[in-house]
Design goal:
Layout: H1 4-19, H2 25-60, H3 65-80, E1 82-90, E2 96-102, H4 106-112, H5 120-127, E3 132-134, E4 156-163, E5 166-176, H6 184-228, H7 233-248, E6 252-258, E7 265-272, E8 282-283, H8 288-295, E9 299-301, H9 314-317, E10 320-330, E11 333-343, H10 351-412, H11 419-454, H12 457-473, E12 478-483, H13 485-488, H14 491-512, E13 517-524, E14 527-534, H15 547-558, E15 562-567, E16 573-580, H16 585-591
Parallel strand pairs: 12-13
Antiparallel strand pairs: 1-2, 1-5, 3-4, 4-5, 6-7, 6-11, 7-8, 9-10, 10-11, 13-14, 14-16, 15-16
Length: 592
């Protein structure tokens, strides 16, 4: 039994303990645990801040734009512990022109098949450039789902990257590790990284622009030296294409120029690993290059070979991806078109590269203008020489030969009693008559060839013939012309060549049931060669001497050449007509 004193004493002790601040062991453990969690949060925030600062310093030190963009995505993935990350660089009309991914290997990318174009949630972020955080990606009203082969994704975090107040692109992060949702801290971190990325991208673009300006100035100086040194126009054009390729670090550069009045172009210079496949290629009016030549406005494309705006051209011979066309001209008009392209799978070109080529094209126009003047001067000199030769041959050689013939005929009257002398003199007179005929034929050839070249030459006639064949074929044949077709091929050979091509195209239209025809005309090493290939039914080599094919063979044999026809693999026909070109200078070429 407890006394009142004992009870009073116990109560006082309890209240005294409470007043003295004593805490129960359980309460103490809870407070310590809460304090530890707070310390961990502070430490985690401090570590994340250090990581963010490290990422900002890292991306700020990279001046190569392509490497910088990939580093930005990797930093974003690491900072918020995401599984997948991407940066979509915006192009024309709010589309995604470049998509840089982290977290997906090449096999996974290949299963998807193509990069997004800017629809669904990605398009929402493009239209409304504000941070976006979702716990269930597929439940959003703007979601359009994933294409077949795309890995499943649930959580989403996105933020715009702005450069000088303009949206450069958007950062996309999905699937925070551990199955967690992205939180407000993740959003703040991503926004901070995006802001720093904008500054870094701006610096990289400025550096890229300065490098391109330096390259352009160096290229301009080299071009000026070439012009002043009297380098032949063909070499200058080849040097121009190679210079642009080095400036842009691209896979292929071509320079197309008009063959005649109109929009028909031909690739006169090309630089790149597969330049030989497009050099000499004719570009009809359906190509993007022809449209640039007609309008004088540049055109860009992210997938040139698949671009529905144009058909044919270099992209039909080589699989090309990112590319742009730039007109080369001045106040007098467009003189040519530059194509700068990468093969499929290679990155797009920066704005600095595009601006550099656009500026350099103004200087390249001067090169083309000087090249044209030199060609015209050489042509006038050549035609003047021909006229002089023809005049001299007519006024001096023929007249002298004719006078010598008359003299010999007069001598015949004095040696009638010497049959052997009469026979010899008569033979000389006949030879003189034949020589006069040959010289007159040569004079006519010189004059006729000058008129032919003024009217456009063999290249223009080949273009006209393939254009005519479009109506019967239902499509435009691919034409490739290389070598000095307008200067090294005499009129007789040119006539045979055109007749052979006309017959071959007619056969392809009537019998082959082809959907593509490739024509190649080349003049190299004193040889004129024409090949016509189609993907039709093919022909039996045993029937090569029938009908029109026999005519093609006879035309080749008449000029000392050959004609062959063979099947193509897997289907189609290949016709090859080859003849030697005459040797002996301009007179021999023109005289036939």
């Amino acid at each position: 039994m407890v006394s009142e004193d004992d009870e009073g004493t116990g109560t006082d002790e309890r209240f005294g303990a409470e007043r003295s601040g004593a805490v129960s062991p359980l309460r103490m453990d809870a407070l310590l645990s809460e304090l530890q969690e707070h310390v961990e949060r502070v430490r985690g925030g401090r570590d994340r801040m250090h990581t963010l600062l490290d990422a900002v310093m890292a991306i700020g030190s990279d001046l190569d734009l392509e490497d910088l963009l990939r580093r930005i995505v990797q930093s974003a993935v690491d900072l918020v512990d995401a599984t997948y990350g991407a940066l979509g660089v915006l192009g024309e009309e709010g589309t995604i022109r470049q998509f840089i991914t982290v977290g997906m290997d090449e096999e996974a990318i290949a299963k998807v098949g193509y990069y997004p174009e800017g629809r669904g949630i990605l398009g929402l972020l493009i239209r409304e450039p504000q941070p976006l955080r979702l716990d269930h990606l597929g439940e959003h009203s703007a979601s359009v789902g994933f294409p077949p082969g795309h890995p499943p994704m649930r959580t989403f975090l996105g933020a715009p990257v702005q450069v000088r107040g303009k949206v450069f692109g958007n950062l996309y992060l999905t699937d925070k590790r551990g199955g967690l949702a992205f939180d407000a801290d993740d959003e703040v971190v991503l926004q901070s990284l995006a802001a720093a990325a904008g500054v870094a991208i701006d610096n990289a673009r400025l550096y890229d622009g300065s490098r391109h300006r330096e390259r352009r100035l160096s290229a301009s100086a080299d071009m000026t030296r070439a012009l002043l040194s009297g380098t032949p126009p063909e070499e200058i054009l080849r040097s121009l294409a190679d210079t642009v390729r080095q400036m842009t670090e691209s896979d292929l550069v071509t320079l197309a120029r008009p063959v005649r009045e109109g929009s028909d172009l031909i690739v006169e210079a090309a630089a790149g690993e597969r330049a030989d496949e497009v050099l000499g290629l004719a570009l009809p009016a359906t190509t993007l290059a022809a449209k640039v030549f007609t309008t004088g406005e540049p055109i860009t494309s992210e997938t040139l070979s698949d671009d529905p705006r144009g058909a044919g051209g270099s992209a039909s011979a080589v699989r090309l991806g990112p590319a742009f066309f730039v007109p080369v001209g001045d106040s007098e008009g467009v003189r040519g078109v530059l194509l700068v392209a990468n093969v499929s799978g290679r990155p797009s070109f920066s704005d600095a590269a595009f601006d550099m080529v656009l500026t350099f094209a103004d200087q390249a126009a001067l090169v083309l203008k000087i090249a044209e003047h030199r060609r015209e001067s050489e042509q006038l000199t050549l035609l003047g020489d021909r006229d002089r030769i023809a005049r001299d041959m007519h006024d001096q050689v023929i007249q002298r030969l004719f006078a010598d013939g008359l003299t010999l005929q007069a001598v015949l009257g004095h040696v009638r009693d010497q049959p052997t002398a009469v026979e010899r003199i008569q033979r000389v007179v006949d030879d003189l008559d034949d020589t006069i005929k040959i010289i007159r034929s040569t004079i006519f050839g010189l004059q006729h060839r000058g008129r032919q070249e003024r009217s456009g030459g063999l290249r223009a006639q080949l273009l006209g013939l393939t254009d005519e064949a479009t109506r019967v074929l239902g499509f435009t044949p691919a034409l490739r012309m290389t070598g000095l077709l307008d200067t090294d091929v005499p009129a007789t050979h040119a006539g045979h060549l055109l007749a052979v091509l006309r017959e071959a195209l007619t056969n392809a239209a009537r019998h082959a049931e082809a959907t593509t025809v490739e024509v190649t005309a080349e003049a190299f090493d004193r040889t004129l060669r024409l090949t016509v290939a189609d993907n039709g039914r093919g022909v039996d080599p045993a029937v090569t001497r029938r009908s029109g094919l026999a005519n093609l063979r006879s035309r080749a044999e008449e000029l000392g050449g050959t004609f062959d026809v063979a099947r193509r693999d897997p289907s189609g026909t290949l016709l090859e007509w080859t003849v030697p070109l005459p040797v002996g200078g301009e007179t021999a070429r023109a005289g036939g």
